[in-house]
């Protein structure tokens, strides 16, 4: 969460004032993209839904408003994410995309355990002229998860 606050502060300054400690080029590699997924679930587990929401590109999870997003976790007591092996990033149209395979272990308020597997796609804009610090930061753009039997 602290890293996210630093990234947001850097995006606000973005060359418009004195430089800030900790600001610089956004990390680029696959592990930096996977860190966004980890931060997302860490925020959800802490019930910090605004930080989780801010990990999504373009103002939130596609096809869902913030109230529905938050309500979707109302019955969730805890969530843990395990990131699988990362493949190389792919580039397209001035952006870099990274697939992040995940396994989620959730516990509901009533003690029910659930397991999900799937993939997140994380995107950042290349370091091109005019790109803001926020655009160069990795963001979630899509998720494909399916429920499996709990283990």
What does the model show?
The structure is a single chain. Strands 1, 2, 3, 4 and 5 form a five-stranded antiparallel beta sheet that branches. The protein has helices spanning 2-13, 30-45, 49-54, 66-71, and strands at 76-83, 90-92, 95-108, 113-125, 139-148. The protein is built from four helices and five strands, in the order ααααβββββ. A hairpin with a 2-residue loop joins strand 2 and strand 3 (95-108). With 151 residues, it is an alpha+beta fold. It has one domain: Nuclear Transport Factor 2, Chain: A (Roll). The relative contact order is 0.19.
Number of helices: 4
Helix content range: 25-40%
Q: What does the main sheet amount to?
A: 5 strands, antiparallel
Can you tell me the residue ranges where pLDDT is under 50 for at least 5 consecutive residues?
A: 11-17
Terminal CA distance reads 29 Å
- Average pLDDT across residues? 85
Kindly provide the name of the CATH class.
Answer: Alpha Beta
What key attributes describe this structure?
globular; alpha+beta; five-stranded antiparallel sheet; 32% strand; Nuclear Transport Factor 2, Chain: A; 151 residues
């Amino acid at each position: 969460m602290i890293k996210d606050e630093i990234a947001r502060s850097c995006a606000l300054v973005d060359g418009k004032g004195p430089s800030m400690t900790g600001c610089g080029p956004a990390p680029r590699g696959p592990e930096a993209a996977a860190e966004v997924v980890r931060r997302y679930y860490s925020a959800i587990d802490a019930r910090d839904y605004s930080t989780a929401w801010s990990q999504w590109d373009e103002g939130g999870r596609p096809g869902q408003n913030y109230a529905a997003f938050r309500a979707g976790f109302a019955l969730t007591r805890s969530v843990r994410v395990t990131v699988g092996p990362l493949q190389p990033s792919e580039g397209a149209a001035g952006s870099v995309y990274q697939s992040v395979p995940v396994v989620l272990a959730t516990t509901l308020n009533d003690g029910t355990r659930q397991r999900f597997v799937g993939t997140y796609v994380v995107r950042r804009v290349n370091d091109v002229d005019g790109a803001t610090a926020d655009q160069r930061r990795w963001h979630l753009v899509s998720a494909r998860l399916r429920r499996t039997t709990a283990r």
